[in-house]
């Protein structure tokens, strides 16, 4: 029997994070890293992992000082009004990430399975599914991804093993890129992008009320970063060894292209790429659901007196209204990204230049400002 206490285990946290981290990173990072020149992209992934671990330590320190939830912790140092404004900024970032992931997934589905003209319908269906999943609550989502984990991991491992024989190791070299300062500028750019791919870890700050054991949750998050980083390294090496850096950087979704090249003995599946899209559908869907869920929760906490509880009928009704409003906003942003690619590019620049420093600096500053919550937590 499953419990229904709105709490999730460390194993469920790890698998949720792996789903959130893997989809977008494995789709988009390889072609971006190939621009740095051959194997230097490996070092970008490893450097991004190192920064992710430092960031995870920062989040874990903040969560250990929190007796109730992150907003109450921020209030002790920043004040009520500023804490709500910070929460609103977190909500905007969550909704932007949700819209971007929904646009990527809708485009992927249309390119692989449907037609570009059906993008608005595909986007609507995906967001409705995301609302359905997010409204079920954290515990229900954790159970689903826990059950789906090996169903997705094992086929991917088999497909990658079938690709290994096509890898040309010489295409990995030189491991330090070209003897050109431009290569190292791409290294730092790739490192920043790799670190940004680990930023769904930020949601751990808002997961505190749902965690059974904070110490185990921290170890679970460390495991998720390790598994995802190793998977990115392996995928990048395979793609680089097959395509080469020149061809790899021109591919939009190189891992999907690779899946279409795999030959299964007997060839009983003709469109393997279409089948494997299902794996990335679920990982991107997980990120969309996570960002939508936290976007709703954070925005509602920032703009109302709601304390996070959903026990009463009025609270559940309010949650449904908020989900409806948030979904409309996300659909409008995602469709805007689709119709105006330059808008998405501008949003990406804002995210890298403003959003990433924001989610890093606020916990850092809070460590010095917010101490009262730690005293209350220790007193308990």
From TrEMBL:
<dbReference type="InterPro" id="IPR004761">
    <property type="entry name" value="Spore_GerAB"/>
</dbReference>
<feature type="transmembrane region" description="Helical">
    <location>
        <begin position="81"/>
        <end position="102"/>
    </location>
</feature>
<keyword id="KW-0309">Germination</keyword>
<feature type="transmembrane region" description="Helical">
    <location>
        <begin position="187"/>
        <end position="208"/>
    </location>
</feature>
<protein>
    <recommendedName>
        <fullName>Spore germination protein (Amino acid permease)</fullName>
    </recommendedName>
</protein>
<feature type="transmembrane region" description="Helical">
    <location>
        <begin position="40"/>
        <end position="60"/>
    </location>
</feature>
<keyword id="KW-0472">Membrane</keyword>
<feature type="transmembrane region" description="Helical">
    <location>
        <begin position="277"/>
        <end position="299"/>
    </location>
</feature>
<keyword id="KW-1133">Transmembrane helix</keyword>
<dbReference type="Pfam" id="PF03845">
    <property type="entry name" value="Spore_permease"/>
</dbReference>
<comment type="similarity">
    <text>Belongs to the amino acid-polyamine-organocation (APC) superfamily. Spore germination protein (SGP) (TC 2.A.3.9) family.</text>
</comment>
<feature type="transmembrane region" description="Helical">
    <location>
        <begin position="320"/>
        <end position="338"/>
    </location>
</feature>
<dbReference type="GO" id="GO:0016020">
    <property type="term" value="C:membrane"/>
</dbReference>
<keyword id="KW-0812">Transmembrane</keyword>
<feature type="transmembrane region" description="Helical">
    <location>
        <begin position="122"/>
        <end position="140"/>
    </location>
</feature>
<feature type="transmembrane region" description="Helical">
    <location>
        <begin position="16"/>
        <end position="34"/>
    </location>
</feature>
<dbReference type="GO" id="GO:0009847">
    <property type="term" value="P:spore germination"/>
</dbReference>
<feature type="transmembrane region" description="Helical">
    <location>
        <begin position="147"/>
        <end position="167"/>
    </location>
</feature>
<keyword id="KW-0813">Transport</keyword>
<feature type="transmembrane region" description="Helical">
    <location>
        <begin position="350"/>
        <end position="370"/>
    </location>
</feature>
<feature type="transmembrane region" description="Helical">
    <location>
        <begin position="220"/>
        <end position="243"/>
    </location>
</feature>
């Amino acid at each position: 029997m499953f419990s229904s206490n709105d709490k999730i285990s460390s194993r469920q946290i790890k698998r949720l994070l792996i789903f959130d981290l893997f989809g977008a990173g494995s789709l988009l990072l390889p072609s971006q890293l190939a621009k740095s020149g051959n194997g230097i992209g490996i070092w970008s992934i490893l450097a991004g992992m190192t920064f992710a671990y430092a960031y995870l330590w920062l989040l874990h320190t903040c969560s250990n000082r929190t007796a109730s939830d992150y907003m109450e912790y921020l209030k002790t140092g920043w004040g009520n009004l500023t804490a709500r404004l910070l929460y609103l900024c977190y909500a905007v970032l969550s909704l932007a990430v949700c819209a971007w992931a929904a646009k990527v997934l809708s485009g992927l589905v249309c390119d692989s399975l449907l037609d570009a003209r059906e993008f608005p319908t595909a986007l609507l269906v995906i967001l409705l599914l995301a609302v359905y999943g997010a409204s079920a609550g954290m515990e229900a989502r954790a159970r689903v991804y826990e059950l789906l984990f090996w169903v997705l991991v094992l086929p991917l491992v088999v497909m990658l093993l079938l690709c290994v024989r096509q890898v040309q190791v010489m295409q990995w070299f030189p491991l330090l890129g070209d003897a050109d300062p431009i290569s190292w500028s791409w290294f730092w750019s790739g490192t920043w992008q790799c670190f940004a791919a680990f930023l769904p870890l930020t949601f751990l700050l808002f997961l505190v009320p749902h965690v059974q054991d904070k110490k185990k949750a921290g170890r679970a998050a460390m495991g998720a970063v390790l598994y995802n980083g190793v998977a990115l390294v392996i995928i990048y090496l395979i793609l680089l060894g097959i395509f080469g850096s020149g061809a790899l950087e021109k591919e939009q979704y190189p891992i999907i292209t690779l899946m279409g090249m795999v030959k299964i003995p007997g060839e009983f599946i003709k469109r393997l790429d279409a089948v494997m899209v299902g794996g990335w559908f679920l990982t991107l869907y997980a990120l969309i659901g996570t960002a939508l869920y936290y976007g709703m929760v954070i925005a509602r906490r920032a703009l109302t007196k709601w304390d996070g509880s959903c026990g009463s009928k009025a609270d559940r009704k309010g949650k449904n209204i908020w989900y409806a409003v948030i979904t409309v906003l996300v659909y409008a942003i995602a469709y805007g990204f689709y119709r105006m690619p330059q808008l998405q590019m501008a949003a990406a620049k804002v995210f890298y230049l403003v959003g990433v420093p924001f989610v890093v600096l606020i916990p850092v500053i809070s460590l010095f400002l917010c101490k009262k919550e730690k005293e209350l937590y220790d007193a308990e």
